[in-house]
Design brief:
This protein is mainly α. The chain is built from three helices and no strands.
């Protein structure tokens, strides 16, 4: 009984993470280097890395509450499984 619940929880976390990453990627503005323009080759060419890092930081900040909710859900399910007499 535990293995299907663990598999379901991991699948839920992976799907939610993928959805969050996709949403964040869609919201990020395109830089001049991604547009194919030549303006991105001045002294600011390192800004693409900084934007990617900031995007990752935003994604991690959004995943924190989601992970806490998953942890609470798993703890509740574990308690429910311990309390159920049909084991």
């Amino acid at each position: 009984m535990r293995n299907p619940i663990k598999a379901l929880a991991m699948a839920t976390i992976l799907i939610a993470g993928f959805a969050a990453a996709t949403t964040l990627h869609a919201q990020e503005p395109k830089t001049s280097m991604e547009d194919g323009s030549m303006m991105g080759q001045d002294g600011m060419s390192g800004m693409g890395d900084m934007n990617a890092m900031m995007g990752m930081m935003k994604m991690m900040a959004q995943m924190g509450p989601m992970m806490e909710q998953c942890t609470r859900m798993m703890a509740d399910m574990t308690e429910h499984m311990k309390a159920s007499p049909d084991r």
